[in-house]
Amino acid sequence: MGRAFHLARFELKRYFADRADLAFGIALPIVLFAVMTGALGEDAGFRATMHVADLDGGSIAHRILERVEDSEVITVRRYTRDELADALGRTAILTGFVIPPGFSASIDSGIPASIIVEQRGSGGSEGQIVAGAVREASHEAVSAIELRRAVGALTSDSAGDERLDEAVQQLLAEVHIRPLVEVVTEPMHVPEASELDRLLAGIIVMFLLFSATLSARALIAERRSGTLERLVTTQLSPGELFIGKFLAGVGRATVQSFLLLGLAFAVLGVAGPLAFLQCLILALVVAATVTSVGLVVAALARTDEQAAISAVLVTMVMSMFGGTFFPTTGAGWLEVLSRFSLNTYAVDAFMGLFSGTGHLPDQGPELAVLSGVAIAGLAIARTMFRVSSSPLQS
User: Fold this and answer.
1) Per CATH, which fold does 48-177 belong to?
2) Is 95 helix (H, G, I), strand (E, B) or coil?
3) What's the CA gap between 343 and 340, in Å, rounded?
């Protein structure tokens, strides 16, 4: 067994000395993950713009626009009347708001006034949401005036207007800070995995599988060139040679996993140190599984071309149907096919740990499937393992 470990160590040294392998197995997935993280990792929260022509310029109009901007998700962009009409005419915007002249004076006098909404078609979902926010801000802005007018009608103290205004404003401020009715959102105990979590797990599993299956080309080349036969003429037995190749494959896949997981946990703060350690243990199981699949490919393929085609086919099919980049739960026949993909179990297990609340024992079914495939793959690959191109030698 010691000779098998020495062979695995030699294979790992050769792997780290090969810049092409390092670029494909480590640098490429890091770059791909960085690009896709940049695309999905930006603030995906709702943002909208209120396009308004304020032809009034009064205090109440100003108060309404301030309240709209206080929502922190809506930006107010001001236009002249002609600029707003031009933007709507060019379809640069779909919804515009016009505050007519005399708007504030009418409200102060108790005369109803309107903010005009001009839109193309339905105005789009953003325009409808902004219109609702403007209505709410308008009601809030004039509520103090309506309350002041109602209270003033009930009192005969016309000399206390300033005190009355101050009391009304203080009352409204207290209600705003401590409302009588609150809508409280309580998150579910089981957090929902984000798209970045799925993306991270998918990239790790996909590249591990692709690298492991593609390494079958090197094993076939060594068999055809007689390298494996020469190794067996030393003190290495075919069994030790097989174990050495398996350990080398697991080592390469584990190094890839460690670097990718370390980068994700350090940069994105996916979860804590405990989750990271559990992910490394899971990565070791996944590495053993994909390496066994790669050895099966090497045993079945007869040429480099067959090995390369098999590597691409196995990786793409399992990634496509394994929920690598999108969930397959509830997807009908796609969910059924996903049960036959290693990626499904590996990605689900990683995502269960990325949440920070899941633990490795909770991924028991996934670990059982992955371990079963690894054992079955090793048994098949060992049975078919040959050190020579001649089918009579093993």
Assistant:
1) abc type-2 transporter like fold (3.40.1710)
2) strand
3) 9
